[in-house]
Amino acid sequence: MKLRLPSQLEGEERIVKNAEGKSETFIVPSFLSGCRTAVIYARVSSPSQRNNSSFGRQRAACESFAQAAGLKVARHYEEVESGCVYLSRPLLQQALNDIEDGIADVFLVETMDRLVRDARINAEISHRIRKSGGFLIFCEEQRIDSPDQKFLLDIASQASDYKHDRLGSLGLI
């Protein structure tokens, strides 16, 4: 089924079975057509979090999305580092190098806060990936009925309403 959603949310709805055998539905963005490989990046902030289920959850979400998008996962990275730093994270740098070197064309992360907690750094990373011809995907934002997806759709809807009201107030519609 083809979904027509606002701007970057346009894509194809795809259902996959996750590692537990449960069905998950994702929107695979149209701009990913032609992409073949991905790197998965997972992060926790402290060594005590290494042994909880966070890495497994992050990896599973990204693998499910990769399956839905028809992407082969070239490499997985699991790093214990603060989300507030950028250049001193060796595994993040290696994952970014994989995009720059053409090993993969899609960089998958479960959620934005697993990549960074700083908007400026997120912009730098996004720019670095785009400059290399790659794409950054936050997998939870692509999952149908996830809180992230609902939030993005709400924002897109509000932006559309605002644009319509603004054009109306200017007498342009």
Helices and strands in order:
Elements: E1 2-3, E2 11-17, E3 23-29, E4 37-44, H1 54-69, E5 72-80, H2 90-100, E6 106-109, H3 112-115, H4 119-131, E7 135-138, H5 139-142, H6 147-169
Summary keywords:
Rossmann fold, 173 residues, 4-stranded parallel beta sheet, 6 helices, disordered N terminus, alpha/beta, 3-stranded antiparallel beta sheet, single chain
Q: Could you explain how this protein is built, in words?
A:
By secondary structure, the protein is α/β, with parallel strands linked by helices. The protein has a single domain (35-169), classed as Resolvase, N-terminal catalytic domain (Rossmann fold, 3-Layer(aba) Sandwich), CATH 3.40.50. The protein contains 6 helices and 7 strands; from the N terminus they run E-E-E-E-H-E-H-E-H-H-E-H-H. The strands form 2 sheets. A 4-stranded parallel beta sheet has the order 5-4-6-7, with helices on both faces. A 3-stranded antiparallel beta sheet has the order 1-2-3. The two termini are 32 Å apart. The model is unreliable at 1-8 (pLDDT under 50).
- Order of strands across the main sheet: 5-4-6-7
Largest sheet: 4 strands, parallel
CATH topology: Rossmann fold
What is the count of DSSP helices, taking H or I runs of 4+ residues? 6
General shape = globular
**Structural class category:** alpha/beta
- Give the strand content: 15-25%
Q: Output mean pLDDT.
A: 85
* CATH structural architecture: 3-Layer(aba) Sandwich
How many whole angstroms does the radius of gyration measure? 17 Å
Low-confidence stretches: 1-8
